[in-house]
Amino acid sequence: MAEQKQRMVSKMDDELEMEDVFVVDTSVIIDDPDVFIKLGRKWVIVPTAVVRELDGLKLSTDLKKAGAAKKASRTLDNLGYAQNIAIGAITSAGSAVRIFNRFMKVDDLASSADNRIVGSAIRLQMDNKHYNVVLITNDRNMRNVARSYGIRAEGYPLRVDVTDNEITNGISDVELASNRKAA
Fold this sequence. Notes:
Layout: H1 2-15, E1 21-24, H2 26-31, H3 35-38, E2 43-47, H4 48-57, H5 63-82, E3 89-90, E4 96-100, H6 112-127, E5 133-136, H7 140-148, E6 152-154, E7 159-161, E8 166-168, H8 173-182
Parallel strand pairs: 1-2, 1-5, 2-4, 5-6
Antiparallel strand pairs: 3-4, 7-8
């Protein structure tokens, strides 16, 4: 069984563009519940801590958040119903969405869910040295903690700079430098 699972994952690795493997945070999914499709032919990893947060947000008094959480939960459920989301379910856009239940213990953030999400990115990188794991979150402190563990972290929406094929969060070095001078 384990060998068959590994063969399926390896085949998917070969078929997808494996430059980056995205671990998505709840903040990104709430801002854009269609993120699973919009990231294109990539691995999109959803830690179980995110699923738990989505479950809680479905009952939010903020109707926009509740609606986004319900939509994302439905999308994950539909993918999981039709395919094995534990190893990777292919979306209509060709991305492979996987719910990931392993993590390294991290205790650097106030939220235990945020710690588990960062820990999932770290564990994924440790278990798969050939992956370039990128944590996508709109939480600055999560990005900072992830970076302290050597995990690339970006905000969302992502912008692809075609000239050097690097993903940035839309803020250029020039803008940062001009903001420092103004301050």
